[in-house]
Every structure is written in C-alpha cells, then in structure tokens.
Task: structure prediction
Amino acid sequence: MQHNIFATMRSLNMMEGCKGTQIYAFNPSGKTTTNGYGGGGGVGEKFLQHLHERVNSVRSKSNRNYQALQPKDNVKSVALAEALASYGLPQTDFIEPQIESYLKSVNFVETLADVYRRMEGCSQFEISGMYLEQYAIFKALSDPKLFRKCLKSGREHAVDVHSKVVLSAWLRFDRREDELIGVSAMDCCGRSIECPRSSLVPGYNPESATDPCTCHQRPIQDEDTEVFVGDEECSTSISHGDEEGDYDMSFCIGEEEIRCRRFNMASLSRPFEAMLYDGFMESRREKINFSQNGISAKGMKAAEMFSRTKSVESFDPDTVLELLSLANKFCCNEMKFACDAYLASLVFDMDSAMLLIEYGLEETAYVLVAACLQVLLRELPNSMHSPNVSRLFCSSEGKDRLASAGHASFLLYYFLTRTAMEEDMKSNTTVMLLERLGEFSSAGWQKQLAFHQLGCVMLERKEYKDAQKWFEAAVEAGHVYSLAGIARAKYKRGHMYKAYKLMNSLISDCTPSGWMYQERSLYCHGKEKTMDLSTATELDPTLSYPYKYRAMSMVEENRTEAAISEINKIIGFKVSPDCLELRAWFLIALEDYEGALRDVRALLTLDPQYVMFHGKLQGDKLVELLRHTVQQRNQADCWMQLYDRWSSVDDIGSLGVVHHMLANDPGKSLLLFRQSLLLLRLNSHRAAMRCLREARNQATSEHERLVYEGWILYDTGYREEAISKAEESISIQRSFEAFFLKAYVLSETNSESESSLYVIQLLEEALRCPSDGLRKGQALSNLASIYVDVNKLDNAIDCYMNALTIKHTRAHQGLARVYHLKNQRKAAYDEMTKLIEKASYNASAYEKRSEYCDREMAKNDLRMATKLDPLRTYPYRYKAAVLMDDHKESEAISELTKVIAFKPDLHLLHLRAAFHDSMGEPTSTIRDCEAALCLDSSHADTLELYSKARQRSNEQQST
Result:
C-alpha cells in the first residue's frame, strides 16, 4: 500500500492533539496547495484518507494482543512514523535550485576562446593573473582537476612574493592538508611550488617551480667563516681588519658612546650621508647626540656593526626589530631588507606570526608580513576563528594596513572568500570578506564575481533587497547570469510577475539555455511550468531540479513508483545528497526501509553533516530510526553483501554497505579507502579525498599510511611524489596496495613498452600479496589491460577470466575488447551483453557494445547510453560523425552544439572545429580551437588544426 507511512505520520500527529503550529508545519499557509507537497489539499488529503484505516488497524490489533498478534512490521512502521511525524512532508518550496555563486557565461565557448587569446598575448607579469581568471571561469565546469591546474599554473608563473604566498597556500588548502594528523602548516611537502620558503623568493621562474624542493638540504659552510654571537660582537671591538684608529666619530645615547666610522655610517642611506657630510652641524662634530631618535645604545652598536658586516644574523630578535625601525626612519634600504629577511625566517607557527605581523605592518616590512601572512593562510580555515586574524582580514582598517605593506589584493581576498563561503556562506565574516573583495576588484570579471557572490550570500541570508542590489551591480558589470539572481530576489520579495517578465526577456534576448527555462519555471504554474521544465531538461539534462520537481508531482498523484523512476534518471549519472534524500523519502512511502536506509547511508558518505527533512533531522539519527526496521547484519554478512553489490556494479549500494561496516568498525582505514574508490567512480571527488585523508589518519601502520598519502598526491597531480610514497611503503613492507599504487601511477604516466613490462611485474607482485577478492579483481583487470597494450592477448584473456571468477563484473568489458582485437566481434558483443545484464549502472556498457555491432544496432545502444548518462560524449561524437559521413554538415554541427552548450568538452570542441574546417569556416574553426586549447593548451591535434586554420585565415585576409 503506497503512502502508508506518511499517512500514519499525519494521523499520529493529529491523534496526539497537535494543533496550531504543529499542523502549520504541514501547511504553513493554512490553504489548499496544488503545486506543493505538504498542504491541506493534494496529496496531503490523500494521506489523510489513510488516517483512521492505518492507525486504527494497528492500534486495534495492539489492544487485542499487541505483542503477540501485531506483525512486527506494523510496530516498526508506527514507531518510525511517530519519530518522523514532526518533520513534515517534502515540499517543492524546499527544492528550489540555488543561484550558482560562480561566473556563468551565456556563451561559454566564446568566453573560453577570449581567455585563451588574451593569455597568448599577455606578458610574464600578467600571466599569473590570467590563470586566476581562468580558474574563476572553470568553476562553472565542476572539474577539480581543471581548478587545480589553473592554481598550479598561476603559482608557476607568479612573479612577486605576495602572489606566490597566496597561491601556494591555496594549493595546500585545495588538498586540505590541515586535516592530516601530524602535518604542520609550515611543513615542506618536497615541492618548490608549495614550499613555504620558496614562496618568499621573488622573481619569475616557472621552470623551477615544479622542481623538487631543496629547502631541507644543509647549506655548505666555509670552515673559515666567522660566526658572530651575542652582545660581544655589538661592541666597538676590532673586527674584520678594522683598526681602533679607523673610528673617527661617535654616537652618544644617554651615558654611552658608540664609536663608528663616518664613511660606513654614511653609506647606510642618503639621510645618514647628508647628516654626516652635507653641511649639517653633525658633519663637523666628532660626537653626535642620538638620544632622541628612539634607538637604544645596544641597537646603535648593532647598526654600527651592520655598517661594517652588512649582516644581522648575530643579533637577537629584539635588536633586529630596533634596527628595522631605525632603517625605516633613515631610509636604510639595505639594512631594512636584511632585518626584514631575518625576522621572516623566525616565523614558523601561528604564535610567532601573530606576534611579528604587528611589527611587520607597523614598519611595512614586506617579507616579514609575507611570512606571517603565509602562516595565517596555510592555517585556514582554523586561523579565521581567531578574532585578531578575522579583524585583520575583514575590517577596512586591516585591509588598509595590509595594503600599505604590499599585501592586500584581489587574489588574497578571492582565496579568503572561497574558504569562508565553504565554511559558512551566511556568516558576517563571509559578507565582510566579499565587501573587501569588491573593493579590490578592477577588471570587469573581478567586479562581476565579487558583486554576484555578494548577491548569492545575501540571498542565502534572506536579505532580499540587498541581494537584488548586488545582483544588479553584477549585471551592470556585465554578468548576464546575475539577472537570474535579480529575478529570484524579486520573487522572494513578492514580485512574482516581475521575476517572470525578467526571465522571459532574457530568454528572448539571448541564446536560450537550460538554466534560463529552469529559472522561469519557478515563476509560473500548470502546463507552462511543465513545459519550461521539459525544455530545461532538453537543453541541459544535467539540471537536477526538473527531475526532482517532476518526481514530487508524481508522488502527489499517488505514483510513487513513477516518481522513483524519475529521480533515478538523474541519480544514474549525477549522484547528489539532495536527490538521494528525496528518493529515500519515496522509498519510506513505499515502506522499502532497506532501500531508504541504503540511500541515507550513501548520502551521509557524500556529506557526513547532511541534515534531513528541511534541515530538521541529522542524517545519522534517521539511520538509527531506519536501522531498527530492517534485518540486522554482522560484519561477515556485510562483506558478502558488498561482494554482491560490487559485482553488480551497484556503487550506491556498495557505499551503503561500507557505511554500515564503518559503523560497526569505525577505525578501519581499509574500508575508508574503499569508500574513496567508490566515490571517485561516482565523480564525487571532494568526498573521495575526504575519505582518503581520514583513511590516512586512521592507518595503524607506517606502510599503510604512506600508500594513502601516495593516492592523495596522485589525485592532486603529483605523480612522481606518489610513486616515491609507494616505494617507501614497499621498503617497509611489501603489500598489495603499495605495489598496486606504483603500478597504477606508472601506467598512467608512461605508455612505453618497457614501462608496460615493468608495470606487469609490479601487478604480479601485488597479486602475490594478501588482499580481498574485490581488489584482486581490479588488479587482474588492470594487468590484463597492460597485456593488451603489449599485444599478449592470451595472457589478457586468462587475467580477465580469473577476474570474472571472483565476480569482478567489469572484466566483461576488457574481455570484449580482446575478442574484438582477435576479430571475434560476435563474442565481443555477447560479452558486453553479459555486462549489461549484470550491471546496475550500464551506460558505459551500452556505449562500448555499440563498437561491436552494425550501424543501426550501434545507434540504438548509443541512444540508450545517452538516455542513461547524457554526460558521456562518445555517443554525440559518433552521431555527429555519421551525419558528416552522410553529408549532413549542418545537422552534425547542430548535434555537437547542443551538447557543448551543457558540456564544453575538449574532444567535442575539437571535433566541431574540424567540422567547421572541412566546411571552409576558418573563423568558427579558430574559435573552437581556442576554446579547446583553453581547456588543454597542449592538445597536439587541436594545436595543429589551430595553426592551419590561422594560416588559412591570414591568407584569405591578405587576398
């Protein structure tokens, strides 16, 4: 019976005498709703029909003999309903899509092409800033590898210390090293690009930025080098060949007289030279009273010594601080630089940074402030919890002080706002940092970003008037997408028709996009809303809101199974906590508590802090409620269940099982590692990295910890360092995972036959080590793939067969490839059919099977692959290529344009550029090449096509 649990929830609420506010939790307006999911009408009344039937049935059985006669399922259902009754039912108001907080272009390809053109022509002093702009644009693509590539390139090409410090800290934050136990913020990771010491060295040196860091190497010391220590060397004693008679003047401070050489002191700065030689009274005096200049006798002795040695290394920090102040007063640039560098070398943690940054800001000591700033940034987000740090970055006064020292910039505040928005988008700190970001915005894209983000934050804070103001400022700066923010703010302020008109105008004026129709759908009803949502999905099938809304509408019509099918469409290729929560709701309605528990566990793996039911119930509490309604399993049962889920390629089901296993054994790093692998398959990179870091922290042995650190390095782009970690782990203890890591990274890095043979040896070593069947199946499949690369097909077949024996279902795909290479197309096709029959997720299987059949069957398979996963690009490329073969050039271009609109993929852009080139359209060819090269500037085929197209374009212009 559908909706039983929701009916019971409603009935229990009313039977317990809930009135007033409790009833309004289901229908806040007190009126019948037709487009919501929780009012007095619609599905709400249908739930009420079950009120007396459901509850009275259960209660009457209980009255006769509650324990003996009532089915256990009824007891569990009522208990669950009682627990969930106060949380209300799903409502469409709660699933409104957010206004995205990044730059969103209405013509993304043109934007990419423009950025590439400007990057090609900019100077070395501008290139780092161009990579930052590229980073801001790429945020719309949700590809962490692209983001990290931009940050790394920006750091490589940075010229000034400030930019190096900020970008190095940003790269470290991107990897979240603050979450690794035992890792200090100022630890050197072994790479110059992130080394805290290298960041303090100015200059343009992109070639050395990726070199291994040398900061741990001991400096070569000359045996004859004299080391100055203590106050003894601050006296006027003879040193460095100076004779007592060389001193020809004195500075008097109080009762003390500091003997000096006039020439040496005059060489410190132009003011000292003028005082001692240019006609002032002091130039004719042997003794000069210096008591009123704020320096102690000890400090003056140090200044005299610096005039001879040009070094401050022998002085204590307090003395160097005095020298820094003196250097500022008398413009002693050389001495200031030496003091600045020395004090910067003393900064190594938060305490020293907070102590010395005040001196640095007061004396505008550029390097010292940079060193302190570096610690504060590398300690993010925790450092922002300090009131002093927050005040420094957030206040106008702090911003001005940083600017005076040369350390306030758009780059700095862009980094700070990213971290603040991730931690708490609605906080006052976030607002103040965004205001500072706006003050440092100069370029058009910077203003667009700062103002649009302020609008998004104000919208979240429900300060709709301010949100509209900032969105309007962003539109004025040229950000068209902010019109959606204006429309949303108007809608929230009660101007629904104005919001509709605004979006209607946008659709008329621009090339329509899916998000435009999605936004307009919020401001209309009935068939018009349904049509807008259908158009939104047609233009951009990756938008989740249309699926969610349609699913909830189906539930209102008592079509819960259809609702689950609808939400499954988006979950099949784009897993997110909100969609899993909605499906869990529907499964509870069907009393499928096992499925609901699976989804809740999976979404908690994606986001452990997720709060269910409109932000009212912690996810782990719902797990406890659901757990008592299903069969309890021990760890052995869970392992069996995991094998079944894994073999059926059910990644969400596998996530649910692993989450259950971790609840039984929370410190199991191997299970956390397994979680990370599943999350990577689901393209949940951020959650995967979190699990990897947790696995590393929970590791009980050094060799295991090194493996997880290696995977973290590999996933963040440091392949050589990952191999080094694997080798270090193997040197401690030979293990499956260490050999597998090394083999995997090498196979991705080098495809030469000699390297392939070495990878084979490594995988064979891995298979000799203990491990579970799930991992050995993966290793066998990888080994077979390498055998194929070196043309050992029979060996590959053996490996794939062995993998299938231990239920590694994905091996069917590899086996099909081998049969195809052996010209056994029917066997290859059959092998992929077996995978389709076994796998829960099979878009890739349909796509691959299309390669082993005739054109018509291939079209059907690719159509199915696109239906299951519209993000897969091969079906679109194949269809476009077929159209080109049939001389339907316009249709081929249109096919690619349709998908590029929501997935601007490198290969799609290259293919469209090639089509334009074949049609003799150099302008369009050049544009698509530039957009593709913006995504990957080293793509050889695109570079070649780009060069030819530009040459032809120049020839046409010259004729």
User: Anything to note?
Assistant: The CA atoms of residues 30 and 451 lie 38 Å apart. Residues 1-72, 217-242 have pLDDT under 50 and may be disordered. The radius of gyration is 34 Å. Strands lie at 249-253, 256-260, 287-289, 617-618.
